Amino acid sequence: MSADSPSSVPRVSEHFEGLAASRRNWIQEVLRPWCRTATVQDLRRAELEWHDFAGRADTAATLWKWAWERFPDAVHADFPGLNETWPVDVRLHDGSLFSGYPDARRSLRGQLILVRSDAAVAAGLTESRPILLDEVAGLVRVSAVGD
After folding, report:
1. pTM of the predicted model, to two decimals?
2. Within-domain flag for 60
């Protein structure tokens, strides 16, 4: 049979299934691990072209969640974005330590805002300064945050 015969051309469904599987594999084996190691500057550049890399996927649920996965306690496996249900201790490369609950709505584009109870202020809550992902040396879940 010649290379152009109908039997040598893959069926469309097989070709599409292979294409879709290849793309899923690339996302899981290349793109997601890259997000876990990239700098915030590179992540923000990728965000501008994210639809070309990941399709119509929401950047908060993919790119930024995957970036924060370098600290597994920062994210919830089944939900997009940062995990707000547990307090965390965040140690920066300069030795600074921050504690509180991640505020997922305000922690955008590689920045983390922590909130914690504070009886000394009228509102009862204080928040950390924006902490850049690149500043974080370690992030661990803790059982409780002191007031």
Report:
1. 0.81
2. yes
Task: Return the half-sphere exposure (C-beta side, CA atoms, 13 A cut-off) of residue 104.
Answer: 17
* Model confidence at 37: pLDDT above 60: yes
80/133: higher pLDDT: 133
**Does 1 reside within a domain?**
no
pLDDT confidence band for 3 (50 / 70 / 90): low
Number of domains in the chain: 1
Q: Are 88 and 144 in contact (CB under 8 A)?
A: no
Q: Compute the average pLDDT of residues 29-57.
A: 95
Lowest mean pLDDT among 31-45, 61-75, 76-90, 101-115: 76-90
Whether residue 113 contacts residue 136, with contact meaning beta carbons closer than 8 Å, is answered with no
Are the C-beta atoms of 105 and 51 separated by less than 8 Å?
Answer: no
> Residue 30 falls within a domain, yes or no?
yes
